Amino acid sequence: KIMYSLLSKGKLTSKTLHDYMAYTVKVLELGQRYTWVSVLEFDREYLSLQANYHFRWGADSQHLMTKHLEPISRSATQSFVSKTDKTPVVSPLSVNGKPICRKFNFAAAGCPHSPCRFEHVCWVQNCGQRHPQSRHVPSTPTA
Q1: Fewest Cβ atoms closer than 10 Å to its Cβ: which of 85, 102, 104, 126?
Q2: How far apart are CA 24 and CA 141, in angstroms?
């Protein structure tokens, strides 16, 4: 949605499209090591700064990373090995101690498995509700 908006407004050219795509991959990779809420905060500020200062997409900002990104605690994750490639995959655990389903949260069509060995709850840390991360509504702090 953001990419199409940037393209239609002429703020993203064919030359900068690859940089923008690399940046979106970087954001998703950050979500594997840092809490999703902190990654979204990082992304929000990065997008705002990029719009104001027009620096190259994907340019590292150590300041923003230090300011926003919170590592996923080791106690909240568990390592699993994929059956196909034997690569360890870190998946957060639900309150029931079961790993949270990535496909339920991130695949456009949702999870095709029934039954699924993973928990179908929100990926956002400390949420645990029965909706995918894409439908998560952050709670507003009360004063």
Answers
A1: 85
A2: 28
